[in-house]
């Protein structure tokens, strides 16, 4: 009996883990019309970043000067990111997936949480079937 319960618990945990992997592969709704190219970068050149947009508390899109876009999926929720914006500081000429961003709170003057970035996944406009 105990063995059957343990196997059931393991199977349930595996199913939950598998569903979380599938969910993380989906793009945020704001990126409808885009797909992941499969190309990833550890770092982006600071001089080439044109703008950044926090889509929610987990995802940031970086648009480059050449028009390409990269999605960084944060490994953990960064509370307030989507409506407060963020800052970063680096001594390098690159922003890397090992760098930390800090949520801004201009209303109080006290910064919010600091959060780690994720890999930079290149985005492409999805092919539209007619």
Would you mind describing this structure in some detail?
With 130 residues, the protein is of the alpha+beta class. The chain has one domain. 22% of the residues lie in helices and 36% in strands. It contains 2 helices and 10 strands; from the N terminus they run αβββββαβββββ. It has a 5-stranded antiparallel beta sheet. The longest helix is centred in the first third of the chain and has 24 residues, at 2-25. It is globular. The N and C termini lie far apart (57 Å). The relative contact order is 0.20. Residues 3-23 have low confidence and may be disordered.
Element layout with pairings:
Layout: H1 2-25, E1 34-41, E2 43-45, E3 49-54, E4 59-64, E5 69-73, H2 81-84, E6 86-88, E7 94-96, E8 100-103, E9 114-116, E10 120-125
């Amino acid at each position: 009996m105990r063995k059957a319960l343990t196997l059931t618990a393991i199977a349930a945990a595996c199913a939950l883990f598998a569903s979380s992997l599938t969910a993380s592969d989906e793009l945020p709704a704001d990126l409808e019309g885009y797909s992941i190219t499969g190309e990833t970068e550890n770092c982006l050149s600071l001089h080439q970043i044109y703008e950044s947009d926090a889509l929610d508390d987990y995802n940031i899109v970086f648009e480059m000067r050449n028009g390409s876009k990269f999605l960084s999926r944060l490994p953990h929720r960064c509370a307030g990111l989507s409506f407060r914006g963020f800052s970063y500081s680096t001594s390098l000429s690159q922003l890397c997936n090992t760098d930390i961003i800090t949520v801004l709170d201009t209303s109080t003057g006290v910064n919010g949480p600091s959060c780690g970035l994720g890999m930079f996944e290149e985005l492409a406009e999805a092919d539209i079937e007619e």
